[in-house]
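B., you asked whether I could sanity-check this one before it goes into the benchmark set. Here's the sequence:
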Amino acid sequence: EFQLVQSGGGLVQAGGSLRLSCTASGFTLDGYVVGWFRQAPGKEREWISCISSDEGTAYVSDSVQGRFTISTDNAKNTMYLQMNSLKPEDTAVYYCAAKNLPPGDMLLKLWALSNGLESDYWGQGTDVTVSS
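And here's what the prediction gave me:
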């Protein structure tokens, strides 16, 4: 079965750190762009960060700039989201996603800004709760 399996997340105090993982199963991330998105209660899904699987330029939204870092490990077929200096407003369900796109930063950014529209795969979602 082709899927993305997430791990990590949980409850953390403001100022703390968490790392989310997302492992591809049944397919390789080579040739895919990958990203992280989140959805807070009562809000629309929001793009957080994205990168091509060949570890080209990474893009991070203004809301998490300087605090969150995306990375990939092709040997482990896994992507990560390192989250530092967490704030209560970061509380949300976090999702990873992957889409097979031709090389090019423009397509990567368009996919991210569409909040992952027409992604090929989505992770199951992980709760992140930041207490004040």
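One thing to flag: The first helix runs from residue 105 to 113. Otherwise nothing jumped out at me.
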